[in-house]
Amino acid sequence: MHEDCLFCKIVRKDINAKEVLRDEHVVAFHDLNPQAPTHVLVIPTVHAEHLSEFAAQGNAAAADRLLSAAAEIGKQFGPNGYRVVINEGRDAGQSVFHLHAHVLAGRPLGWPPG
Ligand code: AMP
Ligand code: ZN
Predict the structure, then answer these.
(1) Which of 22, 42, 97, 110 allows an S-S link to 28, with CB 3.0 to 4.6 Å?
(2) If you take atom 16 of ligand 1, which residue's CA is the nearest one?
(3) Does a structural domain hold residue 110?
C-alpha cells in the first residue's frame, strides 16, 4: 500500500468509487471521465506503478484475476464486444501510477487508437 496513491485509497475505501466488483485480488470501478458508455477500471489490490513492475513482481494469482475480472466485466457490459487497455508510461498517456486495466464497451471502438 502506498499512502498517497489515489488507487490505493480506493482499495482502502479512503475515497469513494462506483464499484462494480471487489475481491482479494482486484477492485473494479467506473472511470470518473468515461471514454465510452461503459468505462470501468480494474486494479490489483497490491500496489504496482505499472504493468512491467507488476509482472516483474511475480503476482501470478493477481494477474490471472485481473484478466478474468476484465473479461467478466467486458462480457457483462459489452455483449457486442469490448476492449481492454493498459497504458504504461508517458507515450501511452498513463496518468495514474497504480496499474489499471481500462474496460471499454457500449459503442464501436475505432482502431488504431489515438
Ligand atoms: P491512465 O491515463 O491510463 O493512467 O488512466 C487513468 C484513469 O483514471 C483516467 O481514465 C481517469 O479518468 C481515471 N480516474 C482518475 N481518478 C479517478 C477516480 N478518483 N475515480 C475513477 N477514475 C479515476
Ligand atoms: Zn497504489
Answers:
(1) 42
(2) 32
(3) no
Identify each DSSP E strand in 5-85 by its residue range. 19-22, 26-30, 38-44, 82-85
Shortest-distance atom of ligand 1 to CA 93:
2
pTM of the entire structure? 0.98
**Contact criterion met (CB below 8 Å) for 55 and 63:** yes
Residue 100 CA: nearest ligand 1 atom is 3
| Ranges in the chain, pLDDT < 50 | none
pLDDT at 70: 98
Under a CB-based contact definition with an 8 Å cutoff, are residues 34 and 109 in contact?
no
With a CB cutoff of 8 Å and minimum separation 6, the contacts of 35 are 102, 104
Q: Is 31 in the pocket of ligand 1 (CB under 6 A)?
A: yes
What does the block give as the cell for 73?
A: 466485466
Q: Would the CB of 93 count as within 6 Å of ligand 1?
A: yes
CATH number assigned to the domain comprising residue 67: 3.30.428.10
